[in-house]
Design goal:
Strand order of the largest sheet: 23-24-25-26-27-28-29-30
CATH architecture of the largest domain: Alpha-Beta Barrel
CATH class of the largest domain: Alpha Beta
CATH topology of the largest domain: TIM Barrel
Number of strands: 30
CATH superfamily of the largest domain: Phosphoenolpyruvate-binding domains
Distance between the termini: 76 Å
Helix content: 25-40%
Strand content: 15-25%
Radius of gyration: 30 Å
Number of domains: 4
Length: about 800
């Protein structure tokens, strides 16, 4: 394969050339070959040495397009067409676009342009083989500017062969400068239609029809969290992922520790991947969609090493563009895997234009005030709420039925839908993942969307009033009716620094990247119970003793949940590690204190398979819970799974900011047994900086705080349990609920003594109970007592920072 440019190609002037090779262009040439082609040339020149694979090719220039328009004398005809168009009338837009495209397609290329394209394609065939297959992509000269994304406005043609096919595809690309969506986009952004030129990229195809392809972002697309790379992947050519025709696999990778050599895959979500786009070897089309066999749908289409490799490339590309621009530049990247060679390639890269443009000083939180029947669920895009009358449209021919302010419900969208998408209050689709067209446009327009619902077009009727809620986590829900909601706004400008650390209580890993925007000093309490209940659902002993389960229905249920795992306990470890890893990554390198499981026996029994392994207790609140379980022969194997998960987060993902915390530890001796049990499973106190904290929630923890200080590295006061055990009441009993008050003098004396003793022994001490969130005067008392940190509910953090700053001033 020849990779050197001919002498004539090397000496050509860019400004007057009709065709340029990717090796000849770079990021400074957007005005000559468009953003897409300039970026490909930049990567080939600058990132090939870092191992980033980019297929080679060539581009027609802006000069070639203008030469074509001028040679044919059609500029005035085009301007006249646009002058008569009403951009707010869908029919007028469609008629104008059709006439403009027809004018371009019926105007022949000048002979010198034909010759230039023909010779370049033949040279590409000399490199890759006779009649080599190419992708022919449009690249507008104004695309991928930070303030306006032209990406996706024009056409792409895949699996093109031969000189005739390449010339026809280039001609169609020229015409696609005047697609309906491109015309609408330019009108709405104030661009002159003839001021934007069209370059065409002709690039060697990657045979991903025999493997997989997708999209990745070097930023979390929902929250703007900059330390994560998001990868979506599906079988076949990547167009289905871009267009949202399939629900792809998704992967999240943590960039900072990946750079250090760790393997921090935070999350893997298996997509349905129902169809794939392949070469049409026998028919008249270049590509076609075929069904994916069920066995392939049930498997991830990338290996972990491939996920990590793509993430390394995302980092390299982001770093390169950030250095070029002198500012952090998150990237939107398309990748493909060649099924013949097994190689990975980058086929496009452009700056991300939504999250990276948002101001970071305003925090907006949506709260749904009521709930109703759920009509459809899918992946939430954005964290807001929209509502209105639904308009179900499954065919682009019916776009004129849409009315501004309605909720668009459809199978999927493509750029032809953009003129009505900008008028929608929310968007709901049957198909697509977080990087599909509907998701990208919804983010760009700041409206909520739920993608990949599967059956939304069947479950929702046109004219039905609905509320589209994306503020309750990664699962978005379409509720029946117009439900009340409110929006809380907070500015992050000029927040005071406090001596007392302000941490957060976290339960749900799905919301943690958005919570990371809140200016907290870390996480004071991450609860494993939420992850176990919502993501794992199965009792750990039921996984360890799967073959000995007595109830066949339970066994079948667990088999379905853990279908990807031959050894069932690995499911528990992986799911727990991912949940804890997400929380630890969101706040890295700030401390994240993770409380080991603190279910009571009745709560453990409610997990799938739990009834077989749990005793019945009269008072589970005071029974077999917390530390007493961990070294018990009847449970220690299950505790070992928790230890394995946390070790994976620290050792494999590199998230050493994770600090395990032991709940309900009654005696120092019990604490020593737990420390020894953890060490058996690779969590050895003091090794690799591992600290272990203990909950201070029993009177014995306070009275024997000197002795507990010899066992543990820090304390976290659990004010809920400490209050009930100090006052001798059951906080769940309505009969004595009125007596439950953390501000009771007896409780305050216990808290003050715990703080004094911990400080005397050089141990850190914080509080993770509800009281500081609910009672400002209790927070003031804690500051005066000298507490190191308070861990609060997320919605209390900002107001508590302000009140504590005032208290500290007075002190």
């Amino acid at each position: 394969m020849v990779n050197t440019l001919s002498k004539a190609a090397k000496n050509v002037r860019k400004e007057t050339a009709l065709v340029l090779w990717y090796e000849q262009v770079n990021n400074q040439d957007v005005g000559i070959v468009g953003g897409k082609n300039a970026s490909l040339g930049e990567m080939i020149q600058q990132l090939k040495a870092k191992g980033v694979n980019v297929p080679n090719g060539f581009a027609t220039t802006a000069n070639a397009f203008r030469h074509f328009i001028a040679n044919a004398g059609i500029e005035e005809k085009l301007r006249e067409l646009f002058s008569r168009m009403d951009i707010n009338d869908v029919n007028s837009l469609q008629k104008t676009g059709k006439k403009a495209r027809s004018l371009i397609l019926h105007t022949p290329f000048p002979d010198n342009l034909k010759v230039a394209i023909t010779e370049a394609y033949q040279e590409l065939c000399d490199r890759y083989g006779e009649e080599t297959d190419v992708a022919v992509r449009s690249s507008a000269t104004a695309e991928d500017l930070p303030e306006a994304s032209f990406a996706g406005q024009q056409e792409t043609y895949l699996n093109i062969h031969g000189v005739k096919g390449v010339l026809e595809a280039c001609h169609k690309c020229f015409a696609s400068l005047f697609t309906n969506r491109a015309i609408s986009y330019r009108e709405n952004h104030g661009f002159d239609h003839l001021a934007v030129a069209l370059s065409v990229g002709v690039q060697k195809m990657v045979r991903s029809d025999l493997a997989s392809a997708g999209v990745m972002f070097s930023i979390d697309t929902e929250t703007g969290f900059k330390n994560a790379a998001l990868i979506t992947a599906s079988y076949g050519l990547g167009e289905n992922v871009v267009q949202g025709s399939v629900n792809p696999d998704e992967y999240l990778v943590f960039k900072p520790t990946l750079k250090e050599g760790y393997q921090p895959i935070l999350e893997k979500r298996l997509g349905t991947k129902g169809m794939k786009m392949v070469y049409d070897m026998e028919g008249s089309k270049q590509t076609r969609n075929v069904s994916v066999p069920q066995r392939d749908r049930a498997q991830y289409c990338l290996t972990d090493e491939e996920v990590l490799q793509l993430s390394r490339w995302a980092i390299a590309i982001e770093d390169h563009y950030s250095n070029l621009r002198g500012q952090n530049t998150p990237m939107d990247i398309e990748w493909a895997k060649d099924g013949l060679t097994g190689e990975l390639f980058i086929v496009q890269a452009r700056p991300e234009t939504v999250q990276s443009q948002k101001a970071g000083n305003l925090l907006e939180t949506y709260h749904l005030q009521d709930h109703s029947t759920v009509l459809a669920t899918g992946r939430s895009v954005g964290a807001s709420i929209g509502q209105g009358k639904a308009r179900v449209i499954v065919n682009a021919k019916n776009l004129d039925r849409f009315k501004p302010g309605e909720v668009l419900v459809t199978k999927r969208t493509d750029p032809d839908w953009e003129p009505i998408m900008k008028q929608a209050s929310a968007i709901v689709t049957d198909q697509g993942g977080r990087t599909c067209h509907a998701a990208i446009i919804a983010r760009e327009m700041g409206i909520p969307a739920i993608v990949g619902c599967g059956d939304a077009t069947q479950m929702i009727a046109s004219g039905q009033e609905v509320t589209v809620c994306c503020s309750e986590g990664e699962e978005g829900k379409v509720y029946e009716g117009l439900l009340p909601f409110d929006v809380e706004q907070a500015t992050l400008d000029d927040l005071p620094q406090t001596r007392t650390q302000i941490l957060m209580n976290i339960g749900n890993p799905d919301q943690v990247f958005s919570l990371a925007n809140i200016p907290a000093d870390g996480v004071g309490l991450a609860r494993l119970e939420f992850i176990i209940t919502n993501h794992i659902k199965v009792h750990p002993l039921a996984l360890l003793y799967f073959d000995q389960l007595q109830d066949e229905r339970i066994q079948d249920q667990i088999a379905d949940i853990t279908a990807d795992y031959d050894y069932k306990p690995d499911f528990f470890v992986d799911q727990l590690a991912r949940g804890v890893g997400m929380i630890s990554a969101a706040f890295y390198p700030k401390p994240v204190i993770v409380r080991m499981s603190d279910f009571k026996t009745n709560e453990y029994a409610n997990l799938i398979g739990g009834q077989q392994f749990e005793p019945k207790e009269e008072n589970p609140m005071l029974g077999w819970r917390g530390a007493s379980r961990y070294s018990d022969p009847n449970y220690c194997e299950a505790f070992a799974l928790e230890c394995r998960a946390l070790k994976k987060v620290r050792d494999e993902m590199g998230l050493t900011n994770l600090i395990p915390m032991i709940p309900f530890c009654r005696t120092p001796d019990e604490g020593r047994k737990v420390i020894a049990e953890m060490a058996k499973h690779g969590l050895e106190q003091g090794v690799n900086g591992l600290e272990v904290y203990v909950m201070c929630e029993l009177p014995s923890n306070v009275i024997l705080a000197d002795e507990f200080s010899e066992v543990f590295d820090g304390f976290s006061i659990g004010s809920n349990d400490l209050t009930q055990l100090t006052l001798g009441l059951d906080r769940d009993s309505a009969l004595v609920a009125h007596l439950f008050d953390e501000r009771n003098e007896a409780v305050k004396r216990m808290v003050k003594l715990a703080i004094e003793t911990a400080k005397k022994n050089g141990r850190k001490i914080g509080i993770c109970g509800q009281a500081p969130s609910d009672y400002p005067e209790f927070a003031q008392f804690l500051v005066e007592a000298g507490i190191d940190s308070m861990s609060l509910n997320p919605d209390s953090v900002l107001k508590t920072i302000l009140s504590i700053a005032e208290v500290e001033k007075q002190i």
